Amino acid sequence: MNEGLMARKRIAGYSMLIPATVLFLLINAFPLVYGLVLSMTDMNYTKPRSGKFIGLENFRSLLGDSEFWSVMGFTIFYTVMVVLFSYALGLQLAVLLNKNIKFRGLFRAAALLPWVIPAVVAAENWRWLLNDQLGLINRTLMRIDVIHEPILFLADPDLARLSVILVAVWKSYPFMMVVLLAGLQSVDNEIYEAACIDGASRTRIFWHITMPMLKPISMICVTLMALWTFNTLSFDNIYLLTQGGPAGSTYVMSIQSYYIAIYRGKIGYASAISVMMMVIIALTVLIYWISQLAAARKTLSRVGEVNG
Questions:
Q1: What's the pLDDT at 304?
Q2: Is the model's pLDDT at 111 over the cut of 70?
């Protein structure tokens, strides 16, 4: 009797999962598989008889394309810089807001504003601030005689790359701050009190207590931010600010794939770029898993040595 009841409960549970599973397959699995199929064809909207299967030819062309390697290099550089500086800034603010200071709640709310502001609104405001003619930054610097001619933040290739990185850091540091602040609040204050009694300086406490305690959560938030920046934040932020310009200097892989597909009609080639992005993301996740397994094995070995 009990076995029959349990079986009916399992069937009911599985039946409730069917709608969500179908929706997941339609939204995620189908586009993924279709993109893989397109990457192995010569699909081109400008050619009526395209769509033939060509195997790995698109990937061979990518590996021999100097423009692709340049764009991929900037994409990785952009991702590393955004994650590095957003982590550093988020960590500093998390440490500061973890202390018992006045108006701490107000400061926390203010620090979260860049994260909650819609990407379009944020980008339009930054375009106005960085504009070389009407931008607030240039007009203020010229008014106080710091500069004598406008700085081409979004028109100079090097400055444009720096600008999109700084705006992305401004947009993403609140996520790091919130996650790291949660990690700091989980650390027992008695550990810090014991270290202070032993005469440890603030610097030693930070590097030998705070950072090791934050290591697990830091790995998670850094990995997540790297994936988001590489895949989503790179497109939204850069496309809204510079559309990949000037002269393609701020192209990232997602924008390159978009332009090749929409403006050149090379759907197959653009899909191959997207597949390459997926491979890089998969390698990042694999590296994270391997590092976590290595850390777990190291912990188990230490526990075994202590028990032994």
A1: 65
A2: yes
pLDDT at 168: 94
Of the pLDDT bands very low, low, confident and very high (cuts 50, 70, 90), residue 2 is low
How far apart CA 266 and CA 47 sit, in angstroms, is 9
Q: What is the C-alpha to C-alpha distance for residues 147 and 295, in angstroms, rounded to an integer?
A: 51
Cα–Cα dist 160/237, whole Å: 12
Nearest CA to 154 out of 128, 183, 192, 172 is that of 128
Q: What pLDDT, on a 0 to 100 scale, did the predictor assign at position 305?
A: 63
CB 112 within 8 A of CB 176: no
How many residues can be counted in the chain?
Answer: 308
- Dihedral sign from CA coordinates of 45, 47, 49, 53: negative
Question: What pLDDT, in 10s, does the model give residues 210-221?
Answer: 888 888 888 888
DSSP label of 230: I
Place of tokens 């397959």: 25
Which tens digits make up the pLDDT trace of 112-130?
A: 888 888 889 999 999 999 9
Identity of the amino acid at 75: T
CA distance linking residue 308 with residue 295, whole number of Å: 20
The rounded distance, in Å, linking the Cα atoms of 183 and 94 is 9
Written in H, E and C, the secondary structure of 148-210 is CCCCCCCCCHHHHHHHHHHHHHHHHHHHHHHHHHHHHHCCCHHHHHHHHHCCCCHHHHHHHHH
Give the CA count within 13 Å in the CB-facing half-sphere of 65.
Answer: 17
